[in-house]
Amino acid sequence: MSGQHHEHGHDGHAHGHDTYVTHYSAKDYAIGFVLSLILTAIPFWLVMGNVLPPNTARVVILAFAAVQVVVQMIYFLHLNSKSEDGWNMMALILTVVLLVIVMSGSIWVMYHMNANMMPAMGGASDTTHGAHDMP
Amino acid sequence: MSELKPSMPGALSADEVTARYLVREHHPENGTLLGFWIYLMSDCLIFASLFATYAVLGRNYAGGPSGAELFDLTLIAVNTAFLLMSSITFGFAMISAQAKKVGKTILWMGVTGLLGLAFLALEIYEFYHLIHQGAGPQRSGFLTAFFALVGTHGLHVLFGLVWLVTLMVQLKKHGLGAENFRRLQCLSLFWHFLDVVWIGVFTFVYLLGVMP
Question: What is the sign of the dihedral through the CA atoms of B47, B48, B52 and B58?
């Protein structure tokens, strides 16, 4: 990320008074691309080659995805705490908080609803046929 | 801010009030990029809802085919490669734009567009194939969630392509002024953001989907 921070007046961009201007460097894109390639290839290899037991593989794959998201945010989306005076980062943090609530909340609620509505709970045949026998 | 002047005796003068109460925050001169970023974050929440839906319904096959039976990981690997390559070619376009090379910028945007088109073509082929073998969105909860999530991402890529072509024409006509550079910066964010979402798609939907 070094070399992304430029004082104003540099490069003649339209950002008259910004103290921060994104600098698009080939080095950043190259690093991001190579890291993404590795972080994509390994999970595909793990699944397609049945390398690990499923439970371990699941955790490893999710970890690789999380790392790759961060890598792309930094090297492709040029996100850091300085861009737009930190407001980019603020918006991102808010989004991640909401995202975690939406995802974990939905999965948690729906998992328990599914589990509690399983016909197997307490006499399977009685429960499933009960509805049809009602007058 | 002069209305803020207190009316009490021995009160502060207007200048002192300003100095004491008016915190001078530094705001970005041009709000476009921040505004566009906030749009992307709202888009992120749409995808989060679709991911949550998939997480909830993803294993409800209703007696129909499962992901393990339907997904062709080789196809998805090729597709992922197309999208990742289109990310770096767009990066080359940004570097060319920064160096004020219009021709090179348009060239790299063209390459990006072709890669995006290849991605979309493979996805449409996959959808067609699935629907053809009776695994359409109406087959099961799993397939509804699958088509909603992957289809929404595909639609984003399609709109990104429309934007890309429009901007190529704009660049050809008006060159690399401040406005067009700003538009390029927005499209750059959009395009890379789609790649970030795709990381979630190939991990959650495809890789975890084919596992037992």
Answer: positive
